[in-house]
Amino acid sequence: MNGIVFANLMISEPFSPFTDACEASVRSLSETRLIESIQQWLGPVCPVSPGGIGDDCAVTDLTGEHRYLLTTVDGVAWGEHFDHTVSPELAGRKLIARNLSDIASMGGIPRRAVVSLWMCAEVSLAWLEAFYRGIAALAQVHGVSIVGGDISRAPAGVFIADLCLQGMCERPVQRKGVGIGDTLWVTGELGGSILGHHARFEPRIAEGRWLSETGWAKAMMDVSDGLAKDLASLVGNFRVEVETLPISEAAIQLADQRGGSAREHALCDGEDYELVFALDRDSECEAFSAAWAERFTTPLTCMGSVVERAGNFMLCVKDETGAWQPFGKQGYEHF
Fold this sequence. Notes:
Elements: E1 3-6, E2 9-12, H1 31-42, E3 48-55, E4 68-77, H2 88-105, E5 109-119, H3 125-141, E6 145-153, E7 159-169, E8 183-187, H4 197-200, H5 205-214, E9 217-222, H6 227-235, E10 238-242, H7 249-258, H8 262-268, E11 275-279, H9 285-295, E12 300-309, E13 314-318, E14 324-326
Parallel strand pairs: 5-6, 10-13
Antiparallel strand pairs: 1-2, 4-7, 5-7, 8-11, 8-12, 9-11, 10-12, 13-14
């Protein structure tokens, strides 16, 4: 298979999930043979029954595990989360990466997952194999076992995959508890994800775990629908002032291509999958920044702070004159 290597994953040129050739599609296999093929495609991240695929449920021994069990589920759909411009390996990688980002946002360690497919009979076996290899490559990086799943037939032209991921942690960091004077931080850069980042991002597992275990993060979540929208979920009914944003080159490029400012793209585009979190107002920000720099090379930005309680969430940014103004736009809305 021709392609490029990305993070130890061989990525093919993008091609359609569907084929008119019966012998090359999932309809050529029985369900049993398809499941056996999936086990082979997943390789070492797929344990044998009863710890993995093969029984009605996967059996997990929690002896010696951390205290809290985390469970999340997210999916990808053809035509909605990826299209013909995204290789099947990156589509599979994105499926598990979205879930890993949720585990990271609570400071967890990912452990086990199940994958559910809704697909038409015309799905290409070669495409599906590459899709699963994308899942397996990132699962192996983070020590995740794929322990089960389900396969269902869907109408023509449909491919939907859901992944349910479990993780463990000692101190789950939630989206609550933010107060006046707390500072707001974000990892990485924001905006322009449609230009490639949405399928190639690195889940911030190590960073989230460190923020949880050290107790620095007071509240935390990942940025999936755009910072302007997700901050409301993190902060609640407070007014926040955001002075500094880590704007990506892709956001600048997208602003040139489609209009709007680079700042608007950084705040609204979504699918950044960075961690946004709050530090308590009494935290020593310089000490925190120094501790972060000793541990990570991941960029980190102190964006601003929570300034006062309000009737509703209010995000304020500076205008051309330097005055604080409400930012009226929001991030991605699903419906």
